[in-house]
Amino acid sequence: MKRLAPVFSFLVFILCAAVTIAEENRVVVIGIDGWTASSLSKAELSVIKRMMREGASTLSVVTEMPTNSPTNWSSLFMGVGPDVHGLTSEGPMKAGYVPKCPSIFALLRDQKPESEIGAFYEWHKIKYLFSKGSLNHSQHLPRMFDVSLALAVAPYIKWKKPSLLYFHIDAIDHLGHTNGFDSPRYLKTLEKYDKKIGKIESFVKKAGVFADTVFMIVTDHGGKGFHHGGDSPEERYTPLVIYGKNIKKNYTIKREVKIEDIPATIAFIIGIEPPEEWIGMPLDEIFMEQ
Predict the structure, then answer these.
(1) How many domains does the chain have?
(2) What is the pLDDT of residues 7-36, one digit of tens each?
(3) Residue ranges with strand state E in 116-274
(4) Residue 152: which residues within 8 A CB-CB, separation 6 or more?
(5) Residue 140's CATH number
(6) Domain range spanning residue 225?
C-alpha cells in the first residue's frame, strides 16, 4: 500500500491541475493592424465571418486621434487615452522606453503572477509597449508564415496554455500604405490571414482549452486611400469581433464602443481589477446570462 501512496498523490495532483485549467478563462487577442470595417463586405473572410455569426461584433469601434498605431495600440493595451499614456508617434518606441501606464499584460502579471502570458508579433516595435517582466514569452515573427505558426505558435499553445495571448499582424497595414486600403492585394492578403486565424483557433482546440477561451479580433485604426491618421470614418471607426466562451451568438453590439472598452472587457473575462484611471467599461451586453 505504501507504494501506491505516491502514485495516488500524483493522480490527485493531475486531476486538480486539470480542474484548474478547465476553470480558467483565457483570452486570445488577434490584432490586425490597419483593418478596415469596409473590408468585411469586400473580402472572403470565412473564419472571421463565422466568428461573427457565432459571437458578438461591431464595425464601429471609436479609436483615438491621431489614428495611428502607437496611439491606439497603447490605448487598447493600457485602457486610457493619449492624454494619459502620452504616446502618439513611433519616436519614443525604442530601447529604454518605459510605458507610462500599466498594460493589461502587466496588470495580469501583478494580480495573478502565475499566469502564462505570451505575444507573437510582426511589427517589432510593438514589443516596447510590453513592460519588463509582463510576458513569459515574446517572439518577433517578421511574417506569420504557416511554418512559423506550426513551429513556434502551436507548441507554445499546446505546452503553455496561456491565460492571455496576443498576436500582432502588420502585413495588412503595410499593404494599405503601398497598394491602398481595400485594394485587391490588401483584400487578398487579408483573406490569407483569415485562414491563419483559423489555424490559431485549431491550435487552441488541440491544446484542450478551447472551451475556456474567448477570441478577440481587434485593430488600431482603419485607412483611406494610402494613409491613416485623420478623422475620417474610414480611418477612425473599426471592426471588433469577440467569440468563444459565454459570448452571445450572432450578436451585434448595441452601445457605442470605444477602443478603451476592449482592455476593460479582457480584464473582466480573466478576472482582474482595472486601475481607477481606466476610462473603458466592459462590454457586459455580449455575455450570455448564467
Answers:
(1) 1
(2) 343 334 334 433 333 358 999 999 999 999
(3) 117-121, 137-140, 164-169, 213-218, 237-244, 251-252
(4) 120, 139, 141
(5) 3.40.720.10
(6) 30-286
